Amino acid sequence: MVKKIGIVSLSSGVLGESFIKHELKIGVDRLNKYGIEVEFLPNALKGMDFIKEHPESRAKDLIEAFKDDSIDMILCAIGGEDTYRLLPYLFGNNELKKVVKQKIFLGFSDTTKNHFMLGKVGIKTFYGQAFLPDICELSNEMLPYTKKYFEELITTGKIKEIRPSEFWYKEREDFSENSIGVDMERYENTGFELLSGKPVFTGEILGGCIDSIYDIFDNSRFEDTVSLCKKYDLFPSLKEWKNKILLLETSEEKPEPKLFRKMIGALKDFGIFDVLSGVLVGKPQDEVYYEEYKKILIEEIGDKDLSVVYNINVGHATPRCIIPFGVAAEVNVDKQVITFDN
């Protein structure tokens, strides 16, 4: 049972801005109702400008969260875009390796790179939810599907299985105080969809937001992502990807199909699809480009040997499950379930 959560801002510092104070209060109150103590690491609430300018302070918070034995779980505030800048401060002198111990780490989006960082030093992590987008949900309750997985994680420290959500939700446009207590529009969800390959396959899952992964191969967002990520071997080698299951999901930027194809192409050129045991793909936010992405996946990587499963409720589309990285998983599309042996 999680007794204390440490909240870190490893990408964007929006959590420290006054315009989201009402959301922050909702989130803290919710966690307190579970009997959980909440600690914001020293730099987590310093706002967007400070956090952007001080990657070393973000790295310091992560190190502190691992060092502090009273913190059972590290929860990311939200994603962002430049967490790769923490690399020199976490790996330059093995700073991260010296302090890590197995504890729950949960985040998604740009946090994908933090998952790779922690994977490098042997920490098993959890992908799919974050404090601001999930715990601070403006409805009177967290979204039921999201809440179910969060509660399982804080009470057992594990996720046993994932099944599709009955509904998906249209993203909010208004996050002001006017939206407190206003429910999100919901639509019926279809289940996991097998695009190619066998319906049952196994392996450890790793991956995350494809936009963040693409930065490791492409400099168009920041000029030094490729060189820094290469210097610190952020992306696992083909040997390390062998027999793993790759998780991919698209960001709230809803990449156009042309860009999505380029992103898939970069991974294809790397050779990853030749060694994997399968691919899981999250539902696109608001189902934008749902069919287009599907067509691209089939054209670019769909073949009879590689299993590709679409429409997983993880990442930027709500509601969100939580996927454990680094533990044995079995995907069974026939039974519409992913089970974990952890």
Automatic annotation (TrEMBL):
<comment type="similarity">
    <text>Belongs to the peptidase S66 family.</text>
</comment>
<dbReference type="InterPro" id="IPR029062">
    <property type="entry name" value="Class_I_gatase-like"/>
</dbReference>
<dbReference type="GO" id="GO:0004180">
    <property type="term" value="F:carboxypeptidase activity"/>
</dbReference>
<feature type="domain" description="LD-carboxypeptidase C-terminal">
    <location>
        <begin position="202"/>
        <end position="331"/>
    </location>
</feature>
<dbReference type="InterPro" id="IPR027461">
    <property type="entry name" value="Carboxypeptidase_A_C_sf"/>
</dbReference>
<dbReference type="InterPro" id="IPR040449">
    <property type="entry name" value="Peptidase_S66_N"/>
</dbReference>
<keyword id="KW-0121">Carboxypeptidase</keyword>
<dbReference type="Pfam" id="PF17676">
    <property type="entry name" value="Peptidase_S66C"/>
</dbReference>
<dbReference type="InterPro" id="IPR040921">
    <property type="entry name" value="Peptidase_S66C"/>
</dbReference>
<keyword id="KW-0645">Protease</keyword>
<dbReference type="InterPro" id="IPR003507">
    <property type="entry name" value="S66_fam"/>
</dbReference>
<protein>
    <submittedName>
        <fullName>LD-carboxypeptidase</fullName>
    </submittedName>
</protein>
<dbReference type="Pfam" id="PF02016">
    <property type="entry name" value="Peptidase_S66"/>
</dbReference>
<feature type="domain" description="LD-carboxypeptidase N-terminal">
    <location>
        <begin position="5"/>
        <end position="128"/>
    </location>
</feature>
<keyword id="KW-0378">Hydrolase</keyword>
<dbReference type="InterPro" id="IPR027478">
    <property type="entry name" value="LdcA_N"/>
</dbReference>
